[in-house]
Amino acid sequence: MSGPYRELLGVPGARLFVAAGFVGRMSMSMVGIGVVLLVSAVTGSYGIAGAVAATLSLAYAVGSPLSARFADRYGQHRVLVPVVLANAVSVATLILCARLDLPVWTLFPAAALAGLTQVSLGAWVRARWSHALRERPARLHTAFSFESVVDETIFVAGPLIVTALATGVHPAAGLGAAAAFTLSGCLALAAQRGTEPAPRPRAPGSRGGVLANPAIRVITPVFLLVGTVFGAIDVSAVAFADEQGHKPLAGVLLGCYALGSGTAALWYGARHWRTPLERRFRIGLALLAVAMVPPTLVGDLRLMMAVVFFSGLAISPTIIPGYGLVERLVPGHQLTEGLALVSTSVGIGVAAGASAAGRVVDAYGAQAAFLVPLAAALAAVALGLAGARALARRRPPEPPETPDKT
Question: Where does the UniProt annotation locate this protein (predicted)?
Answer without folding.
Answer: Cell membrane
